[in-house]
Predict the structure.
Amino acid sequence: MKYFMAGIKGSGMSGLACMLHDLGNEIIGYDDLTYFAVTEPPLKERGIPIYYNTDKLTSDMTVINTAAIHEDHPVIKKARKLNIPVRGYFEIIGDFTRKYDSICISGTHGKTTTTSMLSRILNNTIGTNYLIGDGTGYINKDSNNFVIESCEFERHFLNYNPKYAIVTNIELDHVDCYKNVDEIIDVFQQFIDKTSEKVIACGDDVNVRKLKSDKIVYYGFNDNNDIIAKNLVQTKEGSSFDCYINNKFYGHFDIHLYGKHMILNSLACIYMSFLLGIEKDDIIYYLDTFGGAKRRFSEEEVGDCILVDDYAHHPTEIKTVIETARQKYPEKTVVAVLIPYTLSRAEAFYKEFAEVIKLADKAFVTDIEPAREKIEDYPNINSKMIIDLVPNCEHISLDEISKLYDYPNSVILFMGCKDSFYLRDAYKKGVQNK
């Protein structure tokens, strides 16, 4: 088959392109974004070309498009003119979940890391196919397993048919398509109702506990869970804990990851691996040597500063990143650089954004990245709403990058959906020229 993949630099599309390529299909990539994205290296490794016009779209292809490519887009218009199939990204993923024994990893936060972590364990033991939201996709033709990050945005994960599901947490997010958290809980209920075997869910989360199913087993720190982490130790080298399953000691685990959320992610992976019959020593080893997912506390040392790039775009995630920096670098000043993503999210959460960035020693906020939204639809929404609520907080832009030079021996956290490379590169260039 020949596929023309519109929006191929998107994290999900990039991974899907790799999977389809690994299955022997011919892939032509298209994107509106001309800059280098974190998802590009796996595509280049496979020799998948990326174009910025529709010239390579021909009548013998099938178009796969992301949710950002609408009917009025030139790709879709040309496909309609050529009378060729157009299929959505989530439709194709739905096909994969029906073909394989699928483990669908869902939740407001932690999906990418948990998917990456579990994929590492399974791929190095029993074998698996996987699709991770950091742009990574892989096909193992000898495996019938499929680990897939499963997002609730616009109810997309309802296209999937899980054998197993993991639910990391449930909070209000995607306010452009959900009116309240009760509506999100209802959609998660529909998702777990489609799961044929087990649902592994974080029992410490009050909204997760509202889900009803006899398929659910719970993990967490509280004693009313089935899988429990006890005897936690958190240092600047990482975290360790003992895992209990059904009140019986299962094993001791060390992870080179930071924050209690990473222990919770590990618990979900431990129990899923346990269900699949993976040896405990293998689970211990592959968790101990797991280095994290792309754009999740990704670090780079520049002089006496640590630059961190993180996908955090929700107040809970931002709080977690700042706490992680405190645990790993207790001797450094913590500088938060927030890149707000979508105007609707900023409108809904600007007070919460302000509260969490107060946890840093110094905070900066860029203009809001509107993404799929129109600025004129939100005339009174801007980053000043956040800045005005935070002492010692300033606006920052590419032209104002020199503001960061006043914070030596710092860990500088660049946080947001939008790739922060433009700010990080400008910072590094400025430091070199000082």
Remarks:
- The chain has a mean pLDDT of 92.
